[in-house]
Amino acid sequence: MPAVYNWQLGRAMSYPHAERHPQWQFAFVFNPNRCIGCQTCTMACKSTWTFSKGQELMWWNNVETKPYGGYPQHWDAKLLGMLEEANPGGQVWNASAPEPASKPYGVFEGMTIFEAAEKVPGPDGPRRALGYLPEDDEWRSPNIHEDTATGGRQNEAERYGDSVQLPEHKVWFFHLARICNHCTYPGCLASCPRNAIYKRPEDGIVLIDQSRCRGYRYCVEGCPYKKTMYRPTTRTSEKCIACYPRIEGRDPALSPEGEPCETRCMAACVGKIRLQGLIKLEENGAWAVDPKNPLYFLIRERQVALPLYPQFGTEPNGFYIPPRWVPRDYLTQMFGPGVEHAIEQYSCPDRELMAVLQLFRASRQILFRYEIEHGDKVAEVEVTLPTGETRVQEIFNDTVLGFNKFDKEVVRITVEEPTFERPREAHLNSI
């Protein structure tokens, strides 16, 4: 296999196709700390894209309750087990010498799904990506174990006493919202023998050419996140298309001047857990340095948002701010070795990070740049960090401005939420 560089792993890895990168890359940050599991995003996607015959079990966007939930069931635990079986005891990180530009999380010394597949023989030679094809029953319950918590190893007397104490709750669960990660090195693309799957050169969105697809379901098997799904009525595979007409700015109501707009699931989010954008890439695939891009700031500069299962090797472009009450071993398995740093950043954000966090779901148009106008100090709060150290957080009522692709201001929001009092004489329902 050709060698490609994966910055999330901090090293080169094997991949079935030669390295090639788009001009821009579709990416997003989700914040599970805010997610309430309302499924508004799920139904927004469902009512837009997957409401036809044969799509009944298709949920391009889903919100699953961790640690027991999953769609399809046990998708992550099964693949983690397969990787461990292929490389016993070797799926480890060396986080001793990270480098911000090329290996921000250190080096993953284990095997990716592409490297592990070379050890698994198939009828036509080694497989391209390690994976499995879920059984039909595993697709039937998208909300299985919803709001089901795990209590850990404590007796009944302890279960309700101090179970809500940070840094880790003894009884815990969290909601994990998921869409296709539009990976840099997609497992679905690598697995397709028909070359029916491709990344768009303009924005890196991963699509399936329906005219070439023959429904072999190798893409379903090869996607580690199980976000490629088979449609029996057409005998082809389908997946999240990142609402690319909105990304292209082709909706006249939302984008009168052709401004890139957020996807349906993003725009419908009630809890304001989502921030979506486009990242400028260099020719070698490295992220162009752009600290005023909200996504670049959160992911590369502050490293407060981490990739989902980076050890799979697909270099996903979906990132998550780790939920701060969950046991750290579980989070490290899911998001890699940057968890402690990310949670510390989020638990006590400085002035700039606090302002940027206000941009989540603040505008339907995609934000390419932000500015901050400084305001007055409004509070000082003592914060206990996950390490047990206490720190005084200064909170300022700054105003953060967001700009679209054409550098036009589209959002202006303050850190302190304003209060408006309606005049009694103008509103009949005033109290």
Topology, pairings included?
Blueprint: E1 3-6, E2 11-14, E3 24-30, H1 40-49, E4 62-66, H2 75-86, E5 93-94, E6 107-108, H3 113-117, E7 121-122, E8 125-126, H4 156-159, E9 174-178, H5 187-191, E10 197-199, E11 206-208, H6 218-222, E12 228-231, E13 236-239, H7 244-247, H8 264-267, E14 274-280, H9 294-301, E15 306-307, E16 318-320, H10 328-335, H11 339-347, H12 351-356, E17 369-373, E18 377-384, E19 390-396, E20 399-403, E21 409-414
Helix-strand category: alpha+beta
The rounded Rg comes to 22 Å
Query: What is the CATH fold-level name of the largest domain?
Result: Alpha-Beta Plaits
The amount of helix comes to: 10-25%
Describe the structure concisely:
The chain is α+β, with helices and mostly antiparallel strands and 431 residues long.
Q: How does this structure look, described?
A:
It is a single chain. With 431 residues, the protein is an alpha+beta fold. It folds into 2 domains: 3-347, Alpha-Beta Plaits (2-Layer Sandwich), CATH 3.30.70; 351-414, no CATH class. Helix content is 19%, strand content 21%. It has 12 helices and 21 strands. A 4-stranded mixed beta sheet has the order 14-3-16-15, with helices on one face. The longest helix is centred in the N-terminal third of the chain and has 12 residues, at 75-86. The chain is globular.
